Amino acid sequence: MKEEQIKEINDLLLAYSAGDYTVKGKISEEVDEIDMIISGINMLGEELESTNVSRDYFSSIYNAVTDLVFIVDLDGSVKEINQAVTDLLKFSPDELVKNQLSIVFKDKDIFKKIKDRLDQKNQKSYSLEKTLLSKNKEAILVLITSSKIIDRYGSFKGYLISVKDITQQKQTEKLILQTVVSTQQKEQKRVADDLHDSLGQELSMAKLMISNLESLKIENEDHIHLVKTCKDILDSSIKQLRSICFDLMPSVLIKGGLYLALEELINTLNRQKLITFNFKAIENIPRLDSDIEIVSFRVIQEFINNTIKHSEAKEVNIEFFETKDNYIRILIKDNGKGFDTKSLDLKHDGRGLNNMKSRILAFNGKFKLSSKINEGTRLDLRLPTKKQI
Amino acid sequence: MEVPSRFENDFVILEIENGIMRLTYKAGATINLDNAKTIVQKRLQLTNKKAIPVIIDDIGFKGIEKDARDYLSSDEGIKGISAAALVSKSVFSAYLANFFLKISFYKPKMPARVFKDESEARKWLIDFV
Hints:
Distance between the termini of chain A: 84 Å
Helix content of chain B: 25-40%
Structural class of chain B: alpha/beta
Helix content of chain A: 40-55%
Strand content of chain A: 15-25%
Shape of chain A: elongated
Low-confidence stretches of chain B: none
Mean pLDDT of chain A: 87
Strand content of chain B: 25-35%
CATH topology of the largest domain in chain A: Heat Shock Protein 90
CATH superfamily of the largest domain in chain A: Histidine kinase-like ATPase, C-terminal domain
CATH superfamily of chain B: STAS domain
Oligomer: heterodimer
CATH class of chain B: Alpha Beta
Strand order of the largest sheet of chain A: 2-1-5-4-3
Largest interface: A-B, 19 and 21 residues
Number of strands of chain A: 10
């Protein structure tokens, strides 16, 4: 019996060494010491098989995921990557594993940002948009979602960084925003044209008729007073209508372009004598795509309105010039009290700024706003001279 | 001296004495998932769901099936155990039990040790009563 049991153990160990953990040793009815050993080896085999199956199963899922997955240790060093990483970034696993995560990101402080946010705020996960760099330096816009890896005993083992390519999504969002803005602008132009052509014409005609009444030379005090009052009301109505039409869609912007529209806006503002606006521009500024001209004019208008309302500035300098890389650059700087850009309320001021920025970005422009307390605020816009969609 | 509480069926004996539960697998018994659930249920009934230390005497049993092992090492399976002492007189069994206690799948969430001698195990468990 003992000899049979020893053979059983021998066969079991041979099978396990060949990687076959499905074999089980037979246990006799006596349940003696050797049976206990066989039972123990059987249990060990089951565990090894279960581990192998789990690992293979996990590996196949890990590599089938289309998002890029990085397993990063506590110091930001890459421990593992999935197939999607090598497919998209063209780095081999050897080039990334044991290197810092930042090697594949444009933002070299990326790991610190993720770590700080997950550690300090005790968040379960943290998402942010960043730019990934492939081996051939191609920039890819991505959404990063990170979380801590905690094992079943509660020990903190590292970070799971999941990265999704959102280039296509961003492109679609941009097109939607372009369409929304463009449609809105067309509608505003239509309303402005309608107002000008119908109500505007009728008001002008009424004013002409009143002038005809004046020429009748009726020497009656009441009549003269009534005609004058009507004329004043009509003048004021025509002025207000022009102002509404300008706000809806400045005809000078459509006919003359951004440069002339800005010049007119600045002349109007300087007449109000609230702040001194200095306008400096080169000659022969090319016309831009009409949508970009309207969007940027609105953004500049909003920035100037904010300056008048909040900055306490005495002077605003506006520069308008063309760059060598086919952009029109508009720099606006006030000498006001400035503000802390980081402390902007995201629901109010911050949202307004984000709206300005996203509208410019939607038309392939560039938007940079900077401000320092007591040093003023600066808006730097770059607008493409050719439509780049 | 308190009166020991006791439960016995075909595959296990559970008895409490001096605040320590002794769990003995019967000779020739194989523990499957249903048996494992019965053991946990009866154990909690005896202890009135209070956490107490447990001595596990493995002499005589044929083995514990995989899903029963998984269950017994789960949060539900260890409910009501403040510490566990495995008593094994066989060197190989002791070695194997230690191995199972160290590998991650069954690494227990409560204090657990393997002893060759039951009196040593009881001494160690006193602190967990």
